[in-house]
């Protein structure tokens, strides 16, 4: 089984990636995040939204800015934002996604989740999609840790590699809807596919090696990982 131990890893982002952006979960999330900024930083709704967007652009997620600049407890934030999202009935089982994941040849590739969410949210989403059994593990942002590590920080990708048991960056493949996450992955030596919703504008420069509009396109860009027809 020596070859199995050295399988390349295909890292999947979760939010707005395993379910489409059109699900509008980011809207629900954005409202709760704005409310959190308003309550905890005593800001007007407009200022809360502006700061939230600034942190999102700068750090990849709002919570990092809250922790860095406002000493917010990330676990409290997680309870009031991610875990409070009304996802039941919004994120539904996705048989097409499940089929795509089933078509991965797991003797050739290790499917692994890589999320900036906390474990509770990450697990909840893949369970709602009914694909939770299709991954061999998950690297999440540990909101309980002393040091906050999340994409696109280099340490997060290194943590993912340690946890997934892969040493060579050339064996790391990735899909994420975030431009900065894909760019950072590529800079580290990973092969990354930037997933862009068809309703979104295309970036003027590409984030990484691949740019796709649908997860089904993984079959075309990473054919080496799929069972042959
Ligand atoms: Mg995402």
UniProtKB/TrEMBL annotation:
GO biological process assignments: nucleotide catabolic process; pyrimidine nucleobase metabolic process
Highest taxon of source: Eukaryota
Gene Ontology MF terms: nucleotidase activity
PANTHER family: PHOSPHATE METABOLISM PROTEIN 8-RELATED (PTHR47438:SF1)
Protein name: Pyrimidine 5-nucleotidase
Origin species: Pseudovirgaria hyperparasitica
């Amino acid at each position: 089984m020596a070859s199995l131990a050295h399988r390349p890893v295909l890292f999947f982002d979760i939010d707005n990636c395993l379910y489409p952006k059109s699900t509008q979960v980011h809207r629900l999330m954005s409202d709760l995040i704005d409310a959190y900024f308003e309550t905890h930083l005593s800001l007007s709704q407009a200022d809360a939204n502006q700061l939230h967007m600034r942190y999102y652009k700068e750090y990849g997620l709002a919570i990092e800015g809250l922790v860095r600049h406002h000493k917010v407890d990330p676990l409290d934030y997680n309870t009031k934002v991610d875990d409070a999202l009304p996802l039941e009935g919004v994120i539904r089982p996705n048989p097409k996604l499940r089929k795509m994941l089933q078509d991965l040849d797991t003797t050739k590739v290790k499917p692994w989740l890589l999320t900036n969410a906390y474990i509770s949210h990450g697990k909840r989403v893949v369970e709602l999609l009914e694909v939770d059994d299709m991954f061999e593990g998950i690297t999440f942002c540990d909101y309980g840790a002393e040091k906050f590590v999340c994409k696109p920080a280099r340490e997060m990708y290194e943590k993912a590699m340690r946890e997934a048991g892969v040493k060579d960056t050339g064996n790391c493949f990735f899909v994420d809807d975030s431009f900065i996450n894909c760019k950072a992955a590529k800079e580290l030596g990973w092969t990354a596919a930037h997933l862009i919703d068809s309703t979104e504008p295309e970036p003027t420069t590409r984030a990484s090696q691949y740019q796709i509009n649908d997860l089904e396109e993984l079959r075309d860009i990473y054919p080496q990982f799929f069972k042959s027809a």
